[in-house]
Amino acid sequence: MHPHRPDLLETWRRLASRYSADASLVDTLYSDLAGYYSEPHRHYHNLVHIEALLHLYFQYESEFHKGNVVLFSIFYHDVVYVPGKGDNEYQSAVLAKRALEKLGVRPEMIKEVQHFIEATSQHKLRDDADPDLKLFIDFDLSILAADQEVYKVYLINVRREYNYLPTEQFAWGRGAFLRSMLSQEHIFYTKSFRAKEEDARKNMQWELQMSPGIYSAL
User: Fold this and answer.
1) What pLDDT digit, counting tens, does each position of 84-127 carry?
2) End-to-end alpha-carbon separation of the chain, Å?
3) What digits encode the pLDDT tens for the residues 134-191?
4) CA geometry: angle at 98 spanning 137 and 123, to 5°?
5) CA-to-CA distance for 1 and 24, rounded, in angstroms?
6) Mapped to the 3 state alphabet, what secondary structure does 170-209 carry?
7) How many CB atoms lie within 10 A of CB 71?
8) Which of 9, 42, 39 is nearest to 23 (CA)?
C-alpha cells in the first residue's frame, strides 16, 4: 500500500463502497490510484491536487446534482499524467472506465465520468454544458486565482514537471496556454468562481510579464 492521506482514503471508501461490497477491491483500487499520483515526476498533478479538489467539492457539495460522478471524476481526472503527452485525459478516462466497471458502476454513469475527465483536456465548455461539469472544471482551474504566493508554488511545481524542457521552450508552451486563457471572455464558468476572475487574470498577466526569466529563477 502506498502512503496515503486518511481523508482521501476514507472519502474513496465511502464513495466506492456505494457500488461494491468488496472491501479488498475498494482498497486495491485506491492503492492503484495512490500509486499513479505518487509517481516521482509529479510535483503538481499529485495527491495534494486531488485533496484540494475534494476540499472544494465538500465546500460546494450542495450545488451538485450528480455528486458521485464529480467525485469519481476528481479521483481519476489526472490518474494518467505524462508531461508533454497529448492523450493524458483520454487515457485517464479509459483507466477510470476499467476501475468503475470492477466496482459495478452502471455504464451510463461511467460514460458521464469519462466525459467529465476528458473535458479537462481543454477546459473549454459550451454555454449549455452540464452545470456539474462547469463547477468541476472551475475546481480544476481554481489554482489560477490563488494568492500569488500559492500561485508561485504551483508554478514551481509545474516547471519541475517539465524540467526536461529548456527554459525557452517551456516559456513558449506556457505562454500559449496563458494567452489562450486570457483571450477568453470568461476563465470560469460558474457564478461562484466568476468572482475570482480578476485574481486569475492578475496572476497570469504577472507570469507573462515575468516570462521567461521567472522560470529560470524558480
Assistant:
1) 999 999 999 999 999 999 999 999 999 999 999 999 998 889 98
2) 33
3) 999 999 999 999 999 999 999 999 999 999 999 999 999 999 999 999 999 999 999 9
4) 15
5) 12
6) HHHHHHHHHHHHHHCCCCCCCHHHHCCHHHHHHHHHHHHH
7) 24
8) 9
Q: Which cell goes with 166?
A: 529548456
Cβ burial 42-65 (10 Å sphere, 16+ → b, else e): bbbbbbebbbbbbebbeebeeebe
CA dist 105 and 166 (Å) reads 44
Residue 7 has a CB neighbour count (10 Å cut-off) of 12
Amino acid letter at 28? T
* CB-CB neighbours of 143 under 10 Å: 20
pLDDT the model gives residue 67: 98
Task: Enumerate residues 6+ apart whose C-beta is below 8 A from 45.
Answer: 37, 78, 81, 161
76 grid coordinates: 481519476
Using CA atoms, how far apart are residues 151 and 162, in angstroms rounded to an integer?
A: 17
Classify residue 168 by burial, with Cβ atoms within 10 Å: 0-12, 13-18, 19+. exposed
Q: In the structure grid, which three cell numbers stand for residue 110, read together?
A: 461511467
The length of the chain is 218
Q: Which amino acid is at 64?
A: F
Share of the chain above pLDDT 70, in %: 97
Distance (Å, rounded) from C-alpha 140 to C-alpha 128?
A: 19
Q: How many CB atoms lie within 10 A of CB 127?
A: 6
The CA distance from 167 to 23, in Å, is 46
**Residue pair 143/151 in contact by the 8 Å Cβ criterion:** yes
